TrEMBL record:
Any Pfam family: Usp
Family statement: Belongs to the universal stress protein A family.
InterPro entries xref list: Rossmann-like_a/b/a_fold, Universal_stress_UspA, UspA
Listed name of the protein: UspA domain protein
Native species: Actinosynnema mirum (strain ATCC 29888 / DSM 43827 / JCM 3225 / NBRC 14064 / NCIMB 13271 / NRRL B-12336 / IMRU 3971 / 101)
Occurrences of domain UspA (ranges): 2-133, 142-266
Source species, domain of life: Bacteria
Length: 277
């Protein structure tokens, strides 16, 4: 059975992530799965014995119980396992509709690592990953940033998330600062964007769609549009390629500085919808 998975670590932000994930689980009519990664203990250090592990596990269960109290009546499943967070959540993604994380951990080091963990999970996840900021999300349109036809996976998920709301599809004509686009290049890019979006727009007539083309760096443009958004959706190109690393750095910048939840969608492009005539 599909689930919405949320990472739990005892932090205030994790509880916000649980509430956001519970809302998604309710909308999808699937269970909410609470996952906690218990840090592996180093070997050979005095005092790190079975009793220490038992206390850590007891604390994990308390955090999971607290998180379950934020689920608002959604069916809840638990998982606490000795593992690193990124591999655990990546494994969970194989049977999940969505993986959700808070933007800050329980301590300074955890907070610093969370962004890289989210990018790592987003790069390897089998399903979209959402990072929820350290404040309650505000109402607003869904914003989707796309760079090419390969980003239709992100576009498809953005239309699904809009659910009758407004969707702003944002694309940039300049991936770096070395050159400025001319008017013809901007017009061609706008026409290509419209052709890419059109099949999805016709499939979701209840979604109001605005198209935005800017000659600027993608991260800067998306942060600007995300200020009034309820969700920012971007693609994650995965691992092992230069494009993947560049997109990961853009995604990490967005995770650290964007005021709304950010969804990283694996770019395994779906079939463009075929509509009855």
């Amino acid at each position: 059975m599909s689930t919405v998975v949320v990472g739990v670590d005892g932090s205030r932000t994790a509880l916000r992530a649980v509430r956001w994930a519970a809302s998604e689980a309710r909308a999808r009519d699937v269970p909410l799965r609470l996952a906690h990664a218990e840090m592996p203990l180093p070997q050979g250090i005095p005092g790190l014995d079975d009793r220490t592990r038992q206390e850590m596990h007891k604390q994990a269960l308390l955090w999971l119980d607290e998180a379950a109290g934020q689920a608002g009546g959604v069916a809840v499943q638990y998982r606490a396992q000795i593992a690193l967070a990124a591999p655990l959540l990546t494994a969970e993604s194989e049977r999940a509709d969505l993986v959700v994380l808070g933007s800050r951990g329980t301590g300074t080091l955890a907070s610093l690592l969370l962004g890289s963990t989210a990018v790592a999970v987003g790069a390897r996840s089998s399903c979209p990953v959402v990072v929820v900021p350290d404040h309650d999300p505000k109402p607003g349109p869904v914003v989707c940033g796309i760079r090419s036809v390969d980003d239709t996976a992100a576009l498809a998920r953005a239309f699904e998330q809009a659910r009758g709301n407004r969707l702003v599809v944002v694309s940039t004509t300049r991936p770096h600062l070395l050159s400025a686009p001319d008017d013809q290049a901007t017009a061609d890019h706008s026409a290509h964007l419209a052709r890419t979006v059109d099949p999805w727009r016709r499939r979701h007539p209840d979604v109001q769609v605005d198209l935005v083309v800017r000659g600027d760096h993608p991260a800067h443009t998306l942060r600007e549009w995300a200020r009034g958004a309820s969700l920012l959706v971007v693609g994650s190109r995965g691992r092992g390629t230069l494009a993947g690393w560049l997109h990961a750095s853009t995604s990490q910048a967005l995770l650290h500085r964007t005021p709304c939840p950010v969804m990283l969608v694996p770019l395994k492009a779906p079939t463009v919808p075929t509509l009855a005539r």
